[in-house]
Specification:
This protein has 226 residues and is α/β, with parallel strands linked by helices. It contains eight helices and seven strands, in the order H-H-E-H-E-H-H-E-E-H-E-H-H-E-E. Strand 4, helix 6 and strand 5 form a beta-alpha-beta unit. Helix 1 crosses helix 4.
């Protein structure tokens, strides 16, 4: 089923953009170091979620986290993305022994093409900072509540840190200079607001993990149903 909700930024992921995205996190020392920290938090989150055996990686992008998800030998991975180009890039670019562990699925986070309680956990990295409207976050969380049997692991940008403060100052300066015409597709969310949305969607917060406490905007949440 196709979702009636479509975000403008999702149209950019053609084959070239997908390939560029694959290479982005391997480019330069800082990005490689950042990726290692992402992996560290993801491993801890998976452990806290009980090392789920059937995981939906949505959106999977270029398969950046597939090798990590495949570290558990008997884990089944559904690699899902709204972009056909992203899925093709992931299946072509990731190691063959990893790819054979993955079931590809083209689907939208707003309308996941899986039945109720289909997976043990949903692994959702690098999506929610693109979702600026509360109604859109509610729609995604509702689908996550429907499709996951037990847990959701997701990352987003939250306030209350130096990077968020600096970003807000930059946006204020741009607004003062009249630069308001550019499309915004990344959002810093108030932690209190998004945590209330998690609870309203039927989740309880098991754990919060910050990329760099009091400095970076990235936070990983482990959510449990019920």
């Amino acid at each position: 089923m196709r979702s009636p909700i479509k975000l403008e930024f999702s149209d950019k992921y053609d084959q070239k953009h997908a390939q560029d995205y694959f290479h982005k996190h391997q480019a330069g020392f800082a990005r490689r170091l950042s990726h290692q920290r992402d992996e560290q938090l993801a491993r801890r989150a998976l452990a806290l979620a009980g090392e789920p055996g059937l995981v939906l990686d949505l959106p999977c992008g270029a398969g950046r986290f597939w090798p990590l998800l495949a570290e558990k030998a008997n884990r089944v991975i559904i690699g899902a993305d709204n972009s056909e180009a992203m899925l093709e890039t992931a299946m072509r670019s990731q190691p063959a022994d990893i790819v054979k562990r993955v079931r590809p699925l083209q689907t939208s986070a707003f309308s996941i093409d899986l039945p109720d309680n289909a997976v043990d956990s949903i692994f959702c990295m690098r999506l929610f900072h693109h979702i600026g409207e509360a109604a859109h976050r509610k729609a995604i969380l509702s689908e996550f509540q429907r499709v996951s049997r037990d847990s959701v692991i997701l990352s987003l940008w939250v306030d209350g840190n130096f990077k968020a403060w600096r970003r807000r100052k930059l946006e204020q300066r741009r607004n003062a200079e009249g630069d308001q015409g550019s499309y915004q597709n990344r959002f810093v969310l108030p932690a209190n607001t998004v945590e209330q949305e998690f609870v309203q969607a039927g989740f309880r917060i098991q754990e919060r993990m910050d990329f760099l406490p009091f400095y970076a905007m990235w936070r990983v949440y482990v959510l449990r149903k019920g």
